[in-house]
Amino acid sequence: MKAANVDQLKAIVNGCATVGDTVTVTGANAFRAGPIDRLIYNAAFGPSAEVRGTARWMIKSAGQSLGVWSASIQGLYDAMGRGEVKGYTVPAVNLRGLTYDVARALIRAAKKNGSGTFIIEIAKSEIDYTFQRPAEYATVMLAAAIKEGHQGPIFIQGDHFQINAKKFHADRDKEVGSVRNLITEAIRAGFYNIDIDTSTLVDLSKSNLTEEQRLNFEIGAELTKHVRSQEPKDVTVSVGGEIGEVGEKNSTVEELEAYMDGYNALVNKAGIKGISKVSVQTGTSHGGVPLPDGTIAKVALDFNTLEKLGALAREKYHISGAVQHGASTLPDDLFDKFPKVNTSEIHLATGFQNMIYDSKHLPEALRAKIYKGLRDRFGDERKPNMTEEQFIYKTRKKGFGLVKEELWTLPEAARAGIGAEMEAKFDFYIKKLGCAGNAKDVAKYIPKVMVAPDLKTEISDAAAWTPPAAADTNPNAD
Fold first, then answer.
1. CA 224, CA 27: separation in Å to the nearest integer?
2. Which residue among 17, 286, 345, 424 is buried most deeply as judged by most CB within 10 Å?
3. Do residues 122 and 27 share a domain?
4. Do both 17 and 163 map to the same domain?
5. Over the stretch 133-148, which tens digit does the pLDDT of each residue have?
6. How confident is the model at residue 287 (pLDDT cuts 50, 70, 90)?
């Protein structure tokens, strides 16, 4: 499936597309039938930067020919802040493994329900351990949309572009610079939605709320200014802020006011657009808390706090509202409550990871290989009081990078089986979160702004990070 060179790569689309300064699809059905699968495989695993970068450029250009483009959700969130749109919660889904197939499942579910409000995202930490840099990840999302016949914008988001507090206090400029560089890389790749997480810098030992939140809003405003400096023409990147670190104490109305007042004073002084939403802590934790038997502890999610914070965010600050993190391991019967309290966005990640690992369609030999790799590679992360089940649950997110290409090349029946399970779950979330039938809002509030991909940039980004060889990522490679 790998093209040895660019000529072989371009030959993949013979008869269904022309390749010149842009890629023009002349036979949409034929292009979706097979060529797009070969192109995206080469975009991720091609043997050279030239092949990978050219494949990414071809996919992005072909997508625009077919009416698929990367977009910011800013316009819709502005409408939420004005009270013109309400009644649903936008799902933001983190895809860690089997990414192309799972993205296809999400898009199928959205199409079936007439929903246009779905965000596909990856966090700073996930980029590292899943071996998916922004340039590759964005292309995979667009390829999935092409494959499934989607037409319209795709919202690709950088989740938790986070400041590490320990590294920040050791070397402020270096740590802020690393996040600034990631923002540049992501926007260049087509991430037009960026969640800046400086909540790690909140210091509860300070004498008042403003001082507790000061580093949070100051560094958040500094990074927002950098986002604005990187925006393509006519694109306003949707930026998210965060007031409480997920897994820590619940957020309060007073904390939100301290953060927003301090942040807005700085962005207004700079003359730039501020955040479109704010993440809060209401009792959840990322991935859930595994019990000794591997099951997940129940949480007491504070919907009253979530509702109050969201209402304040909209009414006083005119942003879309509050964002709920760490939700995919919550009980199913809670999800229809989020739109009832006007939660603007909800983040879903670990539950889909769990579905892949627990699926009957995932070959047992591959699952065992991953788990052995986790013990060999990450055994030093096991705490003394951890059971085997807890260790595997806490570390298996890192298994996707160990066998990334093996997952991509699973037999068709296995990938289709997992995809069908995922589609059913996405269908559930879309319905429960009130998103069925809201494609009309996307059409109304999201402008059609297509940023033309640049071939040289795609090749340069492909060269900047080389996919690790199997021997480097998989300690159990045969």
1. 41
2. 345
3. no
4. no
5. 999 999 999 999 999 9
6. very low
Cα separation, 329 vs 331, whole angstroms:
7
Q: How high is the pLDDT of residue 470? A: 45
Query: Quick check: is 440 in a domain?
Result: yes
383 lies in some domain: no
User: Is the pLDDT at 246 greater than 80, yes or no?
Assistant: no
Q: Is the pLDDT of residue 247 over 80?
A: no
pTM: 0.93
Does 242 lie in the same domain as 130? yes
CA Rg value for the chain: 22
| Distance (Å) of CA 61 to CA 103, 137, 216, 371 | 19, 16, 38, 39
d(CA 118, CA 304): 25
Shared domain for 203 and 344, answered yes or no, is yes
Q: Residues 205, 335: one domain?
A: yes
Is position 53 within any domain?
yes
Quote the number of domains for the chain.
Answer: 2
40 in Cβ contact with 59 (< 8 Å): yes
The predicted-structure confidence for 15-66, as pLDDT tens digits, reads as follows: 999 999 999 999 999 999 999 999 999 999 999 999 999 999 999 999 999 9
Average pLDDT, rounded, for the chain:
92
Kindly state whether residues 33 and 75 are assigned to the same domain: no
- Pairwise CA distance, residues 46 & 53, whole Å: 9
Residue owning tokens 């000061």: 214
Cα gap 193→235, rounded to integer Å? 10
* 168 contacts 176 by C-beta, under 8 angstroms: yes
Q: Which of 44-53, 80-89, 292-301, 435-444 has the lowest mean pLDDT?
A: 292-301
| Burial of residue 242, with CB atoms counted within 10 A of its CB: 0-12 exposed, 13-18 middle, 19 or more buried | buried
> How many residues belong to the chain?
478
Domain with 348 in it: what CATH number?
Answer: 3.20.20.70
Does 51 share its domain with 77?
no
Residues 415 and 338 in one domain: yes
> 């999400």: which residue's tokens?
106
